[in-house]
Specification:
mainly alpha; 4 helices; single chain
Amino acid sequence: MTDVIARQSASKKSPPPEWNATTEAFYDEYEEHIYRTGAHRQVSLTFDAPQFCQDWINLARKHMRTRGLRIMYRGQLTDRHGTPRINKKTKEPVLGWMPYDESSEEESSEIRFETGTFL
């Protein structure tokens, strides 16, 4: 979450009729509420390599207020036991956002190299 996204989300809501202060004060207070409690969401364009994502995160932290930035990728979701989740209707794997872990990427690249399969 960044302060820019929180500001954009706050601007979509109008102050309630019983609000006695200025509308600017309402937007500032609501922006802070969204920034502190808002759900994590995608804040940048998609990149094709993790190092570009890390560069963007470093740049964003330097120039704006940020909270909870991390690299994630689209992957197959698993349940708490580690088995892949399957959609009951389509019988296909369920895809979702997975946190990127550099150590697992290094391990999987070694496995791919050993088996000769590349993704």
